[in-house]
Specification:
The complex is a heterodimer. Chain A is mostly beta strands. Chain A is built from no helices and 11 strands. In chain A, 0% of the residues lie in helices and 50% in strands. In chain A, the strands form 2 sheets. In chain A, strands 2, 4, 5, 6, 9, 10 and 11 form a 7-stranded mixed beta sheet that branches. In chain A, a hairpin with an 8-residue loop joins strand 9 (92-99) and strand 10. Chain B is globular, with a radius of gyration of 13 Å. Classes of the chains: A mainly beta, B mainly beta. Chains A and B meet through strand 4, strand 5 and strand 9 of A and strand 4, strand 5 and strand 10 of B.
Chain lengths: 119, 110
């Protein structure tokens, strides 16, 4: 059973960056395809990007390319998502989610991290 | 990018009745289609994958069908705990690892 525990809520000013962590237990990070999904208040789910373990590459949604960086620390089984140049529209709950491979759905989710961007 | 369109946006159904939710893809995703349930304040939960396979622990009243571009989630006899928002998601394998969600259908008590 995979468990994903995310870091706590953040409040950031416009233009700043935020880094959210996701700690994996029950499996090792190298066994999983880690993805990030966000949800603005009252809105739907938006895939941001994820790691394809089959070719070792991280794929980003076009909308976030250049502004998001997803990394993994396999020594601590922790994944990170950093979003830069924050604007008010980035206010959302950010989820990490895992799949067995890059061709599978997301069967485990973190609890979510609220990021608020406000001046 | 593959666009996923769900209908209706809101569905009002009485407990014990049947609910049918639809999802359409802008191009074929084969059977690489999943359904998720999300309740307020909670993370989404995987219900169906491969268009029709129930995830572990999902009750038999949930069923999925379809392939290509047209998909349906059916809940045969609604229980109180089923009132939530439902999302479809395509995870077609080209480009690899690129996923898109539908905008969601809110299932509310009539």
């Amino acid at each position: 059973q995979v468990q994903l525990v995310q870091s706590g809520a953040e409040v950031k000013k416009p233009g700043a960056s935020v880094k959210v962590s996701c700690k994996v237990s029950g499996y090792t990070l190298t066994e999983l395809s880690m993805h990030w999904v966000r949800q603005a208040p009252g809105k739907g789910l938006e895939w941001m990007g994820g790691f394809d373990p089959e070719d070792g590459e991280t794929i980003y949604a076009q909308k976030f390319q250049g502004r998001v960086t997803m990394t993994e620390d396999t020594s601590t089984d922790t994944a990170y998502m950093e979003l830069s140049s924050l604007r008010s529209e980035d206010t959302a709950v950010y989820y990490c989610a895992t799949a067995d491979s890059s061709s599978d759905p997301f069967d485990y989710w973190g609890q979510g991290t609220l990021v608020t961007v406000s001046s | 990018e593959i666009v996923m369109t769900q209908s209706p946006a809101t569905l009002s159904v009485s407990p014990g009745e049947r609910a049918t939710l639809s999802c359409r893809a802008s191009q074929s995703v084969s059977s690489n289609l999943a359904w998720y349930q999300q309740k307020p304040g909670q993370a989404p939960r995987l219900l169906i994958y491969g268009a029709s396979t129930r995830a572990t622990g999902i009750p038999a009243r949930f069923s999925g069908s379809g392939s290509g571009t047209e998909f349906t989630l059916t809940i045969s006899s609604l229980q109180s705990e089923d009132f939530a928002v439902y999302y479809c998601q395509q995870y077609n394998n080209w480009p690899p690892g690129v996923y898109t969600f539908g905008q969601g259908t809110k299932l509310e008590i009539k």
